[in-house]
Write a structure and sequence with these properties.
This protein has 184 residues and is mainly beta. It has one helix at residues 5-29, and strands at residues 41-53, 59-71, 92-100, 103-106, 132-142, 150-157, 168-169, 173-174, 179-181. It is built from one helix and nine strands, in the order H-E-E-E-E-E-E-E-E-E.
Length: 184
């Protein structure tokens, strides 16, 4: 066996170059971990209104509220209730404002369009960085409505730690006009 010093030198030089490149890539990808406050933050993205059929086959209206969220400590969402329909826990809250005589007023629980409280399902952040980011769609069904009904929603979320988000506001919606509205 003959030892060729030049080939050994070239092989070691190429190995060193590859090692330096890989080391640079690993170092570059290990930047600082992003941090956000533990309180969730939400932003209104859109509201789409469309015709649909309810569970009994009756024509109705549906609205899809879409919003963006961030949660710095990754504790958003609730486990399903142990007994369906028994656990009163909610973590998405909506306030309905309805236009009456040209003025928007907060609607009360007796209003037929009054929204329910909702439950965002348990979301688990895997890995070292627990930050959660994404969008949530909520479908609202309007069984009894007047096509002239004009409304908007204020809404907010609460994480498992009890931290409440900011309050976001939807656009103004006229129930007789299908389409999508976006933030102004």
């Amino acid at each position: 066996m003959i030892f060729d010093a030049r080939m050994y030198y070239l092989h070691m030089k190429n190995t060193l170059i590859i090692t330096v490149i890989l080391g640079s890539l690993i170092t570059a990808s290990c930047g600082p971990i992003e941090t956000l406050p533990p309180e969730p933050v939400i932003e209104f993205r859109s509201f789409s209104l469309y015709d649909t059929i309810d569970l009994l086959g009756n024509p109705s209206k549906a609205g899809k509220l879409t919003f963006y969220f961030e949660d710095g400590d990754g504790d958003l969402g609730l486990d399903p209730p142990v007994t369906p329909g028994v656990d009163p826990s909610s973590n998405l809250f909506l306030r309905l404002y309805r236009k009456t005589d040209g003025v928007f007023e907060l609607a009360g629980p007796s209003d037929p369009l009054y929204p329910s409280e909702y439950r965002i399902p348990y979301i688990d952040a895997e890995g070292q960085n627990k930050i959660l980011k994404g969008t949530i769609d909520v479908t609202l069904i309007y069984l009894i409505y007047d096509p002239e009904d004009t409304l908007y929603y204020d809404f907010w979320i609460k994480d498992r730690g009890g931290n409440e988000s900011n309050t976001a506001t939807s656009c103004i919606v006229v129930l007789g006009e299908n389409g999508t509205c976006l933030p102004e």
